[in-house]
Amino acid sequence: MTPDWVQHAVFYQIFPDRFARSGRVEAQDGLALKPWGADPAEQGFQGGDLYGVVERLDALQALGVTALYLNPIFASAANHRYHTYDYYRVDPLLGGNEALRALLDAAHDRGMRVVLDGVFNHASRGFWPFHHVLENGGTSPYVDWFDIQDWPLRPYAPDPDSSPNYAAWMDIPALPELNTDHPEVRQYLFDVATHWIEFGIDGWRLDVPYEIDDDGFWQDFRDRVKDADPEAYIVGEVWGEAQRWLQGDQFDAVMNYPRARAVLSFFGADTLREYQKGPHAFAPLDAPAFAEEIRRLLDLYPRPVVRAQLNLLSSHDTARALWIVGDDPAALRLAVLFQMTMPGAPCLYYGDEIGLSSRGDPHCRAAFPWDDEDAWNHDLRAAVADAAALRHAHAVLRTGHVEICHAEGRVLVIRRHGEEGEALLAFNAGPKAARVALPTEARAAQRFASAWPPNAEAPLEASADTGPVRLPAQSARVWVA
Length: 481
Prior knowledge:
Layout: E1 11-14, H1 50-55, H2 57-63, E2 67-70, E3 74-76, E4 84-90, H3 96-109, E5 113-118, H4 128-136, H5 183-199, E6 203-206, H6 215-228, E7 233-236, E8 253-254, H7 257-267, H8 287-300, H9 303-308, E9 310-312, H10 321-324, H11 329-340, E10 345-349, H12 378-393, H13 396-399, E11 401-408, E12 411-418, E13 421-428, E14 434-436, H14 440-443, E15 449-452, E16 469-471, E17 475-480
């Protein structure tokens, strides 16, 4: 079973080094940190920490956030911390284990969940068992923790074109792959996973889990995690279809990149930037094509899985959503509203709500400009908060059935219905006003109250004879009953 709380959650993804610096971390004293807001392409550490996250929880709660997803926080020599060298130690620059304890306590006091990033396919050349092998060669008792191809090891490639002589992720010498076929490695990783669940985290986001091409590994991983906490959330980073991992015995859900592409390609069709190639490419969609893709994705997995999907629009691995839609905030507002009114857990990438815009890694990992509110798009932030409040206020927007009633041109009409009530949603993603006839069988049944825009008060008349509804350009209406 997928955790029930996920379908009701609004997630917020945080890249810890760039979210908020508290000034409370003694381990940072006297260190050569980059200035806050420095060019992210410089790849240095800017000093964001977990106490900084604690200090911003009230602001996130006001935004409507109920769950956090943190990029890796364990000890690492990289600002993104995907190069783990100690899985049992929160990076001292982030405040150490004590800072995670403070964050979990503060979040849980507010009813907020915290999911951590688990990097279990590869470690780093600083990982203590790999260091042991570097020092002792074939006599190290940890030699079977890795796939060694030749001696002596070359942890620092002599030139950019040479490959390491051990299995490494993407042939990057800094990232030796773990031999997850080895029983000791499996046990170590399962112990790490359960340790932090027992410490109090609420789940794991799994980095490149498809690189561990072993269903048995992930089945055992799930069993261990769910034994520690049946309500823990397990979500995998899989960029395409993921039926293999979503049969109820491995992951609860995956990061819903296909839906992100569809949503931004529809609502941003008029300003969409050429972004990515191949199966992950963005291309303008009209309403019929968008409706077809949404139906396909809703039917791809069992309903409990659909309701548990992590529905992002951008992340640390992509360009920012606003940049993808050509810096059109109206398009992003509609995309966020759509995410907030559909099944699955919407996930905001830190700073998207104030209009941060940039192409992909490393530019999408800029520091949050807390001290420069003049640079914020306050209207966008208010719209995001209002959309999250709409989701929280109406259970039917989280758990109701989805029926696409109309898809023509740039106009989409959706009916959501179930035991929790009924809702009608009308989106006009186009640059011109449109008129649309809503489904008479729905609107004739009862009187619908206007729920969006937040300041709209006119109800939807319960008459089958009522004429078409006018939708201004790039606008949406939501009615609930």
